[in-house]
Amino acid sequence: MKLLCLSNGHGEDGIAVRILEELRKLPNAPEIAALPIVGEGGAYTKADIPIIGPVKKMPSGGFIYMDGQQLWKDVRGGLVGLTCAQYRLVRRWFKRGGVVLAVGDIVPLLLAWSSGANYAFVGTAKSEYYVRDESGWLRSRRWEGWSGAVYLPWERWLMGRSRCKAVFPRDSLTASVLRRFSLPVFDLGNPMMDGILPESPEPIFYEKDAEEKEKIRPLKVLLLPGSRSPEAYNNWKLILRAVTNILQEFQGRSVLFLAAIAPTLDIDAFREGLVEWKEENSLPEDAPINDISALVFSRGEGQLVLTQNAYNAGLLASDFAIAMAGTATEQFVGLGKPVITFPGEGPQFIYRFAEAQTRLLGQSVLLVEKPEDTAKTIQGVFAKPDRLQLIAQNGIKRMGTPGAAARIAQCLLEKMKDKE
Question: In terms of residue numbers, what domain contains 304?
Fold first, then answer.
């Protein structure tokens, strides 16, 4: 069997790679290739998954839904010609006897259907949590569910074709709603949470003085400015305002800020914003990350680390995140931890995106009006231990448990081979 994976975005590429790597481990694994619809598919290249057909980095970075200007930039940048070439390629793939896996939203799903081949769909972009929760419709969003689900009738039509062998929604609530439409739905989890937790976590020992130690240990805050240039650099300026606010309001307690910077970004651009900080020679002895190339700064009782190589360690070690990102925010929430966010100038992380993210992730994401509201929001959460427990439970419910990629890969192979 030959499988072509279609995906449309940096985050979607990463999810697709996790599934494809698990497919490779299975007996009688298919021959695998990829076609990133948006961007150049760096995640596939890094995983040594061959990319077939034309790829191109679009001016919008894939966020054409944010406003019409972004779509027009992509059209002028060659979007129409690129799409036509990709359509011809997937048709040739079908004629050679291949099957298709679509990861993302309606764009790869539509392309998979148009190929003429058997296909499956991993839906990453939509969730019923955008319009409802377990107790019912969100009051302000009932109109978005006019057709009975967050997925629209034409999207469900594509999922319901006989050539669509499996649909993998991102959460259990979405899966339960889609099943009402007699679609081939499998609730196997969200691959976004794979590869974050260590395979052999260290045991936790509770000491008698644990509560006192908790009060004096450094507060650890993860900083997530996003991965898209130049937006991430603008986001960083806003995040530093929140950092200053925390240092002012948490006087008397040391704070460690861990800034996870995407490897594709220029770290010097982030360093330039730290003019009021003193650059140190090495990581503090008790630093929870191991990155000899990290840049370390200090200011009063605060320390700030810029790292491009310790993303997972930062996720695991931090108590809170200040985030203006997509996938990274969801992964932090999935670990059961709270996120504070505020809107930026875009094109991705504008108020509309941030507000939608709060609906997707529920009470785990705290949307504030401006960076200077960050410290009091953190203090408010710390004042209510029960709220922290609810946030932990909510994160696992919304994002699922690790191992989804392997479960999807096994199901995908079975369903595709059953129909050969």
Answer: 210-399
Does the pTM surpass 0.85? The reply is: yes
Whether 53 contacts 81, CB under 8 Å? no
**Of 73, 48, 51, 76, whose CA–CA distance to 63 is shortest?**
73
DSSP string spanning 270-316? Answer: HHTT-TTSEEPSS--TT-S---TT-EEEEETTEEEEEESS-HHHHHH
Most confident of 50-59, 78-87, 180-189: 180-189
Domain annotation covers residue 132: yes
Tell whether 176 and 301 lie within a shared domain.
no
Nearest to 9 by CA among 86, 177, 124: 124
Question: What mean pLDDT, rounded, does the chain reach?
Answer: 89
Count the domains in the chain: 2
Pair (339, 218) in one structural domain: yes
Do 332 and 228 lie in one domain? The reply is yes
Residues 392 and 286 in one domain: yes
Q: Is the pLDDT of residue 203 over 80?
A: no
Terminal Cα distance for the chain, rounded:
9
DSSP assignment string, 115-182: T-S-EEEEE-S--GGGTEETTEE-GGGGGGGTTSSSS-HHHHHHHTSTTEEEEE-SSHHHHHHHHTTT
Is residue 36 helix, strand or coil? Answer: strand
**99 and 111 in one domain?**
yes
Is 201 contained in some domain?
no
Q: Is the peptide bond before 347 cis (omega within 30 degrees of 0)?
A: yes
Query: Which of the residue ranges 122-131, 132-141, 204-213 has the most confident prediction, judged by mean pLDDT?
Result: 122-131
CATH of the domain at 343: 3.40.50.2000
Q: Is the peptide bond before 203 cis (omega within 30 degrees of 0)?
A: no
Do 374 and 410 lie in a common domain? Answer: no
pLDDT digits (tens, 9 = 90+) for 373-391: 999 999 999 999 899 999 9
Both 257 and 392 in one domain: the answer is yes
pLDDT in tens, 3-30: 999 998 878 999 999 999 999 999 999 9
Say if CB 62 and CB 14 are below 8 A apart: no
Is 321's pLDDT higher than 50?
yes
Residues 233 and 377 occupy one common structural domain: yes
CB atoms within 10 A of CB 73: 16
